[in-house]
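Sample intake — MSP domain-containing protein
Collected from: Thraustotheca clavata
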Amino acid sequence: MLADRRARRATQECLSVDDILSQENFQLTATGESRYSVDTVGSLLSGEWPPATPYFRESQSSSGSGWNTGNPSPQLLDFPIANKPIASFEDASSTSTAWTTTISFNARTQPADLIVATPNEVPFDVNLEPKQIVEVSNISKAQSILFKIKTPSRYRQNYIITPNKGILRPQTCVKISIEIPPQETARLIQTNTRQSTKTWSHPVMLQLLKVHDDVYDQLDCMEYHEQQQLHATLWYAADPWRISEKMLTFQVKCTRLSFLESWPAQATSPITPPLHMTFSTNPFDASVHSIRLHNVNGTACIYLHNRTNYPLAFKVMTTAPTRYRISPSFAMISPKGQIELRTCFTKSFTLSVLHFHEQIKLKDTFRIESIVLCGLTPTIEAHTRRSKDELKRIVQMMWSSFDEDIKDMTYLSCLVDLPPQDAH
């Protein structure tokens, strides 16, 4: 009876793999080849296995029915599991087979090896440059990477990061803006000791996660809140071994100049004007109250003299900023020193004058605001580890916050008289 049963089984028709796949009630899904939905969040992550497991993937072929199967060809891999060699499989084409199994060496690459962040150490100057740009690039040719920036909670309020998360397609980069908000800059300056510079080093974590390209395609079709929900779900569903980390460092430099916060009595109510304007380098010449411009390409020059024994900072303002170019518009004059102030027309005004065929007469006013920096001594530069140019820029950045009572105002009239021939 056993022999008859074996004979009947041998005479039955054998079905090929293609016949099985053609059945209506048979469904086969190839991981990495199908479209994914938001509901199947686990499949949106990169289809790699833990590092202690060999990496396999399914691939297509262009011959026959469109699918291949691999014939076992034992070859030792360069990474063992449980002290045993692992056999790999090579593709072998066939017109009547359905699948192939190959080793995916790309899955062994960590996301941190595919991402480059420039710069790795980000310098911030609270007084001068509270905003910086970090460029994050994906150097992979075929792998999309999900990224997220995390800062420790104790100084999370110090930075505004835009964007703080996203996805990087292969061979693409994103520019991330990192800024210290104004309220935090003021707080950091106040926490600093007087007349000194302090530097903080803050570590920041850049988390990375491999995802399929289908995630990027779906994000393009989603609303903003749906994108945020998908991002949160992907990170929540990711296994810890899938997440790779890359560390950045924020170097924060902060200087507090206490002499700009409190002013002595002689600075607030000077007996004589600290600034003296003349047409020559002689500080004893008569004071200048007006300048004249008779040529469209001409320049008017005057000299500003510091009469005090302290450094003096000044800023020039005008009622017609689009008409005049003043150099320098902000500067610092050393004690008993002087500086040349040059005034000419802007290029836009010069071009517009050429369309007028009549005499042009104008009268504008310049206001020169000056402050005596009594506390700016040579030791400040050494204590704060700041150059003279940096100290000047700090004073310029704080100019609008200074009280008007400590500013000395000097007014200068500018008379313009252009003849008709200069208008052609």
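Post-analysis note: The chain has two domains: 111-256, 267-423.
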